[in-house]
What we know:
Strand order of the largest sheet: 3-2-1-4-5-6-9-10
Oligomer: single chain
Radius of gyration: 20 Å
CATH class of the largest domain: Alpha Beta
Shape: globular
Largest sheet: 8 strands, mixed
Organism: Trametes versicolor (strain FP-101664)
Number of domains: 2
Distance between the termini: 44 Å
GO molecular function, one term: SUMO activating enzyme activity
Strand content: 15-25%
Mean pLDDT: 90
CATH superfamily of the largest domain: NAD(P)-binding Rossmann-like Domain
Domain THIF-type NAD/FAD binding fold: 23-328
Keywords: Nucleus, Ubl conjugation pathway
Helix content: 40-55%
Structural class: alpha/beta
Amino acid sequence: MATLEPGTKSVPLSITEDEAAVYDRQIRLWGLEAQQRMRNATIVVVRLKGVATEAIKNIVLAGIGKLVVVDADDVAEEDLGAGFFFRDEDVGEKRVDAAKSHIESLNPLVVVETVSDPSVLEGDALDKLLDGVDMVCVTDSDRNTLIRLNDACRRLNKPFYAGGSYGLAGYIFCDLLQHDYIAPDKSGQKDATKNVKNTATYVPLTAALQHRWTRMTRRQTKELNPAVVFTVLAVWEYQSAHQGALPDDPAAAAELEAIANRLISEADVNKQTLPSIPRELIDTMATTAAHELSPVCAVVGGLLAQDILKALAAREPPIANFFTFDGNLGGGTVVRMSMP
């Protein structure tokens, strides 16, 4: 199957009988129209680390039309743990080159294109790339890069996802602009239609980061597990202050703790629920944030893929809009950050 250049869009295709047979179970679940939307979707994934590996596996198996993977880095030994597309002999090779054939083997019906030139994410080249895709997913990147790419997506009206892991913690953020979807009618009325159309208005990451927790009750705050939320936000702030480097030393705990506590105070979090960031969480993050743990990548990447497919299918509400995973508890929560 021919590979398309970045910035080009193919003519919408109809699902063939052979494809319908392959995706029969999904068509029964989502309907033919939803599968058709996935079939014609082009998704770009930026950075091929553990979370992206898991997400790519799931969206490719589900039957998107085209996947563009952008990553300029080489395979390192530490990538072999969570990056199951890589082999020992791939160390030193470009990540995208090493992974391409493995991704293609998951589903030959999906066009896979790889880009190892980092300049494609800059200036006019970025606009050209985004113009040819339907959705953007940026993984394991620093806050400034996420904001820059999210703003570019906003400018060109492209839905945006971000996700990543920091040791035992992980996150997903999405900005789906103005998103329409079909969901079951929960009005409780006897004569209510089975499904209704809903619209969710999303905000960019810059607005989400200004979210305030003012007037939330102690119980409401506790249910959202704010400690993990502010740990992730503190890691972003730490990265920004250290030229993109993640904390990887017990000595980083004091700075990370000070950042997290400042962010908690600025966001006006209920002090009865979270007077300060738990020191044990900070100590764990200070020593593990720079490392990938396969189980965390599997959970976060799997949920990221599930939400991408949900958004494409326009069936059921996607994440709104910031999800965090706590590997210590084995659970996650969604915080509605600055969304109306």
